[in-house]
Specification:
Structural class: alpha+beta
Radius of gyration: 32 Å
Oligomer: single chain
Number of strands: 13
Number of helices: 31
Strand content: 5-15%
Shape: globular
């Protein structure tokens, strides 16, 4: 019995010592006046911040003082955190404390990252990493790697983020740094959440909860619960999402953590908004707004203002919504939060769309889409595509509307976010209906109603059921129409009931708002009363703990704890090694499979030595994004004809590679089996063969390829007579300093709403002309000083400037420019550029 009680008894003593007010500080007078004033400020911040301030004031020496200043810097958000980190660095430098300097640099980097100054944060962390490596401070090095992973995560570079996070996790696991393991798993869980890999995210976050509870780190547990709430919301698991966010609020109030309380209020507001409970949503968003202003949390302030604007927009108060959005946009630009900037730009675009100011709306949507693509926010991209499609549909530009929706559909097929699926597929059903394609409309309408019901959002069910009701009624499916009408009425009643509830809720809302203000006004007095009561209780407990018997009990307790810890660590190591072995085996199997797939794909890509038999002066720049690619180049010599093409299949990686094999095989059959030599007819037959292949599937497969295809007659030895056809990808001819463009047909080799034969162009070339075949990957790469796309026009201008160089030099310069432009950013697509000089 004694051994069971002692750990809790000891823990209570340690917490009492950490959280109680000191009888007197150490009398240290070496702080700057500003730091000293902040440390002695009696205003409560949070449980951790207040306890760390106490630790700084009562530290026995500068080494302890620096340690607690850095812990304070990590816990105290806002300008105070940076002030504490700078003070720690000053003291460390005076005392030549290398560990303290490295730790201080890492905390300064953390402050920069919180201000969204990611490049600056990364450069400071690199300094900290060098110092930690020099001193062989493994614990600090593990934490720095996790921080570096976080910075990559904040910039949307998930691959780079995982690389650093795994380095930190490996060191922490090997050396049993449980707190750093918790940090690494927390960040990995957030990355997986942003990638919509929800099972992996939950696995990591549950590890964080386990570690946090083991270390009694309630702040980290609260953080994990917050991300779990987001994951459950995306999975439409509303009950679990509410449970987790309420756990966040309970823990945050225990810790007096205003930052996390603000986040919890915002999350609750978002969940109530998704359920059309606008009054509850406004209550929590407004609570978050008040608290965010109090603690100067600009990111959260921008988010809550934008969310409140969205509620007013849905209620038809578009001008009021616009004022909220513009303030939110201004704040998000001020803190350079790209995700929030994209969100606010798209919502402003939606307001102008509702006002039927379509050109202005499209300007906002396009800028939002570019930023959402840069930060790799696929959900935001999909919603923007749907909004743009709605504008085109309202203008009866159905083909353009459908093209935007196809982008959204690609994203919807890869996510578990049912709300996104329902909205995207309902929009596709409406567009196909307007085009008179009722079978396609029915297909997407039925997918939409399933996702709408899975999302449990009444507004989604209402819109999807209404659309499908009209389709069934039009096509004579009376039973289906009746079923959809019943669903529509039930959803409509649910939405309309919100209006009735709102009338009763207005009084309750006002009362809750007043209650919240009263709570905020009395918070300080209440906290002081609690602290006084706690101090009295702590003093009593301290007296109880005095004596030789307690000293003996402490020694006995520590012996028990050490024994149990050894046993638990032994078990943990065994489990970790087993899990690590399983993961490594699975990763190796996946990697081996993809590598083998690369060998299969290599079989369809010709060797450059083979091409050189027909062309002496040429270059090929081929850069797959992943191990396997959706891009490929194709060469064939049959009879007295030579063919060369650059092709871009739907997707990249494994999906793109599978499509490339289908398309390459179809090209081979068109030339070798059907004996076609005219480029336009080759593409017609290839399209037919590709469609026949995909139509065998029971699923609706709309994949295909964009291509630029050249053909020469073998007896045309000087290669002056060129026949060419293109699907989406133009042909470019470099003649001296002049660049000429031959336009491709605006349709892919694949499923399309129209079936028009491809056009064959006959072109007379001159000696010295260079033809350029390319896919869109080079021009679409993000990078440069501002993180923008290269874009095709500047790329072609760059090509023109290389016209006097050899083709080998052209390739090298193009490769160097691409790598320099990309920098540390991830390659966004496969790249293929081919140049042939006559």
């Amino acid at each position: 019995m004694l051994s069971r009680l002692l750990p809790a008894f000891i823990l209570f003593f340690l917490l009492a010592s950490a959280c109680g007010e000191p009888e007197a500080d150490s009398g240290y007078t070496g702080f700057s006046p500003k730091v000293d004033s902040i440390l002695h400020d009696s205003v409560q911040q949070s449980l951790y911040v207040d306890s760390f301030r106490l630790k700084v004031l009562t530290a026995a020496n500068d080494t302890e003082r620096v340690y607690w200043l850095n812990e304070l810097a990590a816990s105290w958000r806002g300008p105070q955190g940076r002030i504490m980190a700078d003070e720690a660095k000053r003291l460390s430098t005076e005392n030549k404390n290398l560990y303290g300097i490295a730790d201080s640099e890492s905390k300064i980097a953390l402050c920069f990252a919180r201000e969204n100054k990611h490049k600056l944060a990364d450069s400071v962390l690199t300094i900290a990493e060098g110092l930690a490596s020099e001193g062989q401070y493994n614990y600090l090095l593990a934490r720095i790697y996790v921080q570096k992973g976080d910075i990559q995560r904040f910039q949307g570079n998930n691959v780079g983020s995982f690389s650093y996070l795994k380095q930190g996790l490996n060191i922490a696991t090997e050396r049993k740094y449980d707190d750093v393991r918790g940090m690494a798993y927390a960040s990995m869980g957030d990355v997986y959440q942003s990638m919509h890999k929800y099972d992996s995210s939950k696995f990591c976050l549950n590890r964080v909860v386990e570690i946090g509870k083991k270390l009694n780190d309630r702040s980290r547990v609260a953080m994990a619960y917050g991300v779990l709430a987001v994951v459950c919301r995306f999975e439409s698991n509303t009950d679990s999402a509410f449970y987790y966010v309420k756990q966040v609020l309970a823990l945050s109030k225990e810790l007096r953590d205003k930052y996390r309380t603000t986040t919890g209020y915002s999350t609750l507001g978002e969940m109530y908004r998704m359920q059309n409970d606008d009054d509850q949503a406004l209550l929590y968003f407004d609570s978050a707004r008040v608290l965010a202003q109090e603690i100067d949390h600009k990111n959260q302030l921008a988010y809550t203002l934008g969310s409140m604007g969205s509620i007013y927009r849905m209620q038809g108060e578009v001008d009021r919504a616009l004022s909220y959005y513009k303030v939110a946009l201004s704040i998000s630009r001020d803190v350079n939060n790209r995700s929030l900037i994209a969100t606010n730009l798209s919502t402003i675009g939606d307001v102008y769309r509702r006002k039927k100011e379509f050109d202005t709306a499209l300007t906002y949507f396009r800028e939002a889409l570019e930023i959402a693509t840069f930060v790799k926010d696929p959900n935001r991209q999909a919603f923007i595509y749907v909004d743009i499609a709605d504008i085109y549909r309202s203008q009866k530009r159905y083909a353009e509307s459908l093209e935007e929706l196809r982008h959204a559909d690609t994203i919807a097929q890869t996510t578990s976010y049912e709300n996104l699926k329902a909205i995207t597929w309902n929009a596709m059903s409406i567009t196909y209906t307007a085009m008179g394609k009722l079978n396609e409309a029915k297909h997407y309408g039925e997918k939409s109603i399933k996702s709408a019901e899975a999302s449990k959002i009444p507004a989604n069910i209402l819109e999807s059921a209404k659309q499908l009701y009209h389709l069934y009624d039009t096509t004579g499916n009376k039973a289906g129409a009746l079923e959809m009408y019943i669903k529509y009425v039930e959803a409509r009643d649910s939405v309309e009931n919100q209006e009735e509830i709102r009338k009763f809720a207005q009084v309750e809302y006002a009362a809750k708002e007043s209650e919240l203000k009263a709570e905020n006004a009395g918070k300080l007095a209440e906290a002081r009363e609690k602290e006084a009561a706690k101090e009295e209780e702590l003093q009593k407990n301290k007296l109880i703990l005095i004596g030789a018997v307690i000293a003996f009990l402490f020694m006995a307790a520590f012996a028990v704890i050490i024994y149990r810890s050894l046993q638990e660590n032994k078990k943990a190591r065994t489990i970790i090694e087993q899990q690590k072995s399983i993961v490594e085996e699975k990763n190796k199997a996946i990697h081996d499979s993809i590598t083998y797939a690369r060998r299969l794909q290599d079989a369809i890509i010709p060797d450059e030595r083979t091409i050189r038999e027909s062309f002496k002066d040429f270059f090929i720049l081929y850069l797959p994004k992943d191990i396997v690619a959706g891009d490929f180049y194709w060469y064939e010599k049959t009879g007295n004809h030579i063919f060369l093409a650059a092709a871009d299949c739907t997707g990249h990686g494994v999906p793109g590679a599978l499509v490339s094999v289908v398309c390459s095989n179809a090209l081979n059959r068109a030339v070798n089996e059907f004996r076609l030599t005219d480029p336009g007819r080759i593409l017609d037959k290839t399209k037919q063969l590709v469609l026949e292949t995909f139509e065998r599937s029971q699923h609706n497969v709309a994949d295909g390829m964009d291509i630029s295809l050249c053909a020469w007659e073998e007896n045309n030895t000087d290669r002056r007579k060129l026949k060419w056809a293109g699907a989406q990808n133009n042909l470019f001819i470099l003649r001296g300093a002049e660049l000429m463009t031959v336009g491709a047909d605006k349709q892919p080799v694949g499923k399309w709403e129209t079936n028009v034969p491809f056009t064959t162009h006959e072109i007379d070339l001159r000696e010295g002309d260079e033809i350029i075949l390319l896919t869109d990957g080079y021009a679409d790469q993000f990078g440069g000083a501002k993180g923008k796309k290269i874009k095709q026009k500047p790329f072609l201008k760059f090509i023109q400037e290389t016209n006097n160089l050899s083709t080998a030099d052209q390739r090298n310069i193009l490769l160097k420019f691409f790598n320099d432009w990309k920098g540390e950013l991830e390659q966004v697509d496969d790249v293929t550029v081919i140049g042939i000089r006559v």
